[in-house]
Each structure stands twice: as structure tokens, then as C-alpha cells.
Design goal:
- The structure is a single chain.
- By secondary structure, this protein is α/β, with parallel strands linked by helices.
- The chain is 41% helix and 23% strand.
- It has 9 helices and 8 strands.
- The structure holds S-adenosylmethionine (SAM).
- The site of S-adenosylmethionine has 21 residues, from helix 1, helix 3 and strand 2.
């Protein structure tokens, strides 16, 4: 699974719509709550995507603080810059999680949400997060357990093929299972782990899975030998279940927080 997802312009725009849902707004709220931010803090967002985290953290740290975002996708960096245009204490640049363009010990906090699941060398990235944090700095990392996603379908074979096509864009299918140990191995202490359920009993625009269906329809035909018609048929079946009140989507995200020793 090394051919990870390329967050081009259409994928980035659909992802942005997904992150604005109630489900992922709650993931941001819980993540930011665990980061112990304060006015004047220096914060790094690795894999900053469309800048929603950076924007919300910037409101907490205020103009006496600073927020730096890095991402490998130019379209994502453009969305993030547009979002945070009114906050000169926020800045974004292209960089890889495994090679951060910052000196040692410059940040009070570092966050990386739904990014490491795309990064082949997770341990190298965690060592970078540790390096750029100050002694006593705070880390928050969150990823989804894609291998345990429950999505009702009456065509199990097609559903499995579609999900295989989708998850082939990830470097790690079940990263949360090993993340706490990896965070500790990178030198962090007092690591905690919490589950954040994302459950949709209806397929509605406020929910994560509504947008995930659209993202999958856009991505999977180009990644696999499934045709657009086959992937559209899968999506149509799920929408049919929804019309009958029989829709079911459930996935667990995991939030890890830890400290760099003083
Ligand atoms: C699912 S999005 C999450 C965006 C954001 N963290 C959020 O939760 O709103 C994943 C992001 O990670 C970025 N990404 C993937 N691999 C990366 C890497 N090696 N270094 C930096 N960013 C990366 C992608 O370009 C994309 O913007």
C-alpha cells in the first residue's frame, strides 16, 4: 500500500467539505481540547489540509502566538492560506512530515490529524514531531481504524472491492492499534488514548459518510479496475438503503496525546 492518495484539487475540495461536517468538527474540538493551548503559544500542524485546525488553533493562541502548517499538497496549502488570510500569525508551507523545515525545540504543541495513515515511515515522522517540540511540549495525533469500518451494503462483494480500492490509498489500514507504542518509542511520555466514534444512521450532508461516498466515487475508479458505473452503483445502493431508513455507517477514530519530557 505504498501508492498513497494524491490530494489534488478535486480531492482536496471534497475533503474540505468532509472536514466541515458535524462529525469532524467534533474530532477537531476534542483534539484541540487535549492540546493545552494558551495565548502566545507556538503551534505546528503537520498535514494541515484545508487549514481548519490551524484556523481554530489560531483563535486560541491569538496574534501573540503563531501557527505553522505544513502539507505535501499544493491545493491543500492554497485552501489553507485562503482560510487563514485574515490571521497574519498563521503561515503554511509545503513540507513532508518526515523532514520538517524547522529547528529543534521551537514549538509548544504539535498536532497531526488523519495524516500519519498516509505516511509510510510513521516512526520517522513521530521522531520529527519530538525534535521540533520544546521540552514539555504537547503532541496530539489522531487516525482512523479503516480496517474496522462498518458500512451496511446488500452487495457485500462490490462493497468490499470498493473499500479495497479506497483503502489502497492509505499507507496504513489500522494504524491506531500501534500508535501509542510508537509515540512512546519516539520519546514521548504520559501518552493517553481515546476513541472518538463517528456514527451515521442516515446519509445526510451534516455527516462524514455522505461526503466519504462522494470522495470514493471520485477516487476509486482511477485507482482500481472498478469502472465509474460500478462505483456509482455501490453509492446508489447506499443511498437506497438511506431512503428505506436502513443506512448504517460506523468508524472509530482514535486520539492520542503525549508530552515531550522536560
Ligand atoms: C485527510 S487530510 C487531513 C487534513 C487535516 N489534518 C485535517 O484533519 O483537517 C490528510 C492531509 O495530509 C497530507 N499529507 C499526506 N502525507 C503527508 C506527508 N508525508 N507530509 C505532510 N502532509 C501529508 C495530505 O496532503 C492531506 O492534506
Amino acid at each position: 500500500m505504498s501508492d498513497t492518495m494524491d490530494f489534488d484539487e478535486p480531492i482536496s475540495r471534497r475533503a474540505e467539505a468532509m472536514y466541515l461536517t458535524t462529525d469532524l468538527t467534533e474530532v477537531r474540538r476534542r483534539t484541540i481540547d487535549t492540546m493545552r493551548l494558551f495565548p502566545g503559544a507556538r503551534v505546528l500542524d503537520v498535514g494541515s489540509g484545508p487549514g481548519l485546525f490551524a484556523d481554530e488553533m489560531a483563535q486560541v493562541v491569538g496574534p501573540t502566538g503563531c501557527v505553522r502548517g505544513v502539507d505535501i499538497s499544493e491545493p491543500m496549502i492554497e485552501l489553507a492560506r485562503a482560510r487563514c488570510d485574515d490571521k497574519p500569525w498563521v503561515d503554511f508551507q509545503i513540507a513532508d512530515a518526515v523532514s520538517l523545515p524547522f529547528g529543534d525545540g521551537g514549538f509548544d504543541a504539535c498536532v497531526s490529524v488523519q495524516v500519519l495513515e498516509f505516511v509510510a515511515d510513521v516512526d520517522a515522522a513521530l521522531r520529527e514531531f519530538h525534535r521540533v517540540l520544546k521540552p514539555g511540549g504537547r503532541l496530539a495525533v489522531s487516525d482512523a481504524d479503516w480496517g474496522a469500518t462498518a458500512w451496511r451494503s446488500e452487495d457485500a462483494a462490490l462493497c468490499e472491492q470498493v473499500m479495497d480500492g479506497w483503502t489502497s490509498g492509505f499507507a496504513h489500514l489500522r494504524l491506531p492499534l500501534t500508535l501509542k507504542s510508537r509515540i512512546e518509542a519516539a520519546g514521548f511520555v504520559d501518552a493517553s488514548a481515546h476513541a472518538i466514534p463517528v456514527f451515521n444512521s442516515a446519509c445526510e450532508p451534516e455527516g462524514f459518510s455522505f461526503h466519504l461516498i462522494r470522495q470514493i466515487q471520485g477516487v476509486v475508479p482511477g485507482r482500481t479496475n472498478l469502472t465509474q458505473e460500478e462505483v456509482d452503483a455501490w453509492a446508489q445502493e447506499l443511498r437506497g438503503l438511506n431512503e428505506r431508513g436502513a443506512y448504517f455507517f460506523s468508524q472509530t477514530r482514535y486520539l492520542f496525546a503525549a508530552d515531550k519530557p522536560r
